[in-house]
Amino acid sequence: MKKLTLAVTLLCFAAALVPAHAQTIDVGFGVGTVSGPAPETRNGVLFPSQSGGAYPAFSADFLLRHHFGIEGELSWRASQALYGGYQPYRPIFYAFNAIWVPKLTKNISAELLGGIGGEDLRFYGILNCNNFVGCTTYTSSNHFMGDFGGGIRAYFWHGAFIRPEARLYLINNNVEFSGSHVLRYGASLGYSFGR
Asked: pLDDT for 100-116, tens place per residue?
């Protein structure tokens, strides 16, 4: 998670260094939840669903021109869940997207995005040591994913907005769970710099 936070921070910093003529930087923080396919049993083994839990999310985008730009986001389960009823785990989703933010009215904009990222499943209570990081009390299972989503920005004071949003994560080789897709939905508060 430290690497993901660093990547998002560097993206925001790099965006701030570019001249801001006709460009916008937007940041947002929100909370939502996820839903996925129902649990299922295959060959006598139960594969749980990834549904439920509170998921804080941080996002930042940089609109270059004509309402097009790049966006990065990070979302994680706020509390650990139990995998199979005994193993604590936490999913972390991160994505880098192309984004289009067309203006619908003076104070309302749509938001459409798509891109790639990953899911980092962290299973806790397992001592994991290596020469680069040292020792951690978790092990990770990483999966490549594609994501698509959108939202509606409603500006209520200067550059401040509220954004109901949804993301569809298409997770490659998500063998730990019952399905290969997860829907995250919720709302964020944000601010547009240079609007």
From this structure: 999 999 999 999 999 99
Domain count, the chain: 1
Please give the single-letter amino acid code of residue 169.
Y
Quickly count: other Cβ atoms within 10 Å of residue 111's Cβ.
Answer: 22
The CATH number linked to 46 is: 2.40.160.20
Question: Which structural domain, as residue segments, surrounds residue 68?
Answer: 2-193
Query: Whole-angstrom Cα distance, residue 48 to residue 128?
Result: 24
What is the separation, in whole angstroms, between the first and last Cα of the chain? 31
Strand 108-130 with 81-83, pairing = unpaired
Nearest to 163 by CA among 183, 185, 188, 184: 188
Q: H/E element holding 105? A: none
**Under 8 Å CB-to-CB from 86, ≥6 apart: which residues?**
none
pTM over 0.85, yes/no: no
Q: Which pair of tokens denotes residue 144?
A: 């490549």
Query: Can you point out the beta strands (E) in the chain?
Result: 24-35, 40-42, 45-47, 55-65, 68-76, 81-83, 87-100, 108-130, 134-157, 160-171, 181-193
pLDDT tens across 37-64, in order? 988 888 878 888 889 999 999 999 999 8
